[in-house]
């Protein structure tokens, strides 16, 4: 049975590696992946970067893991509507100095710059909304609906519990993957923006999604359309 909880600090390395392996083939990583000799060394780099990235969000946002048979199989990073933007001081506080001893600062900068480009189209909708920064599943468990279960059994119920009053809560995320685009649509999100990112002659899609989440005592009316572009 899958259980959801917040990870301990000593588990963040495992959580970081799960993210690294899950996102290693992500379209936005194509440019920087070519700077490594092989996939294994690239995954090691991503693990180090994600450990700092998740460590920074661990203090300011909500991090959940899905655990089954004492194995971490999924992880999500959720920004609250009132969460403060993560800045350089947060990254340094999470161990960026140690990271720069083993990883090229230029490579880290390139990677963070690429991540920021992916976030750009959804920044406006992110204000005052719950924002799903990341949702990753153990590669060996793909096809088991672990991502969908984390949304429906953990993240959305958490937003319902934490939302106050009678106002519908806005829940926003984005992706650069066609596969993930289908995933979010199937899980009740509305696609509200599409842009492209040009990287070294390649065009990468960037889709933004939103969902209205009703607090426990408010009934949500399901919209008739699943795609509305701003």
TrEMBL record:
The keyword Transferase applies. It comes from Paenibacillus barcinonensis. InterPro entries: Acyl_CoA_acyltransferase (IPR016181), GNAT_dom (IPR000182). Signal peptide: none annotated. PROSITE patterns: GNAT. This is Acetyltransferase (GNAT) family protein. Gene3D superfamilies: 3.40.630.30. It comes from the Bacteria.
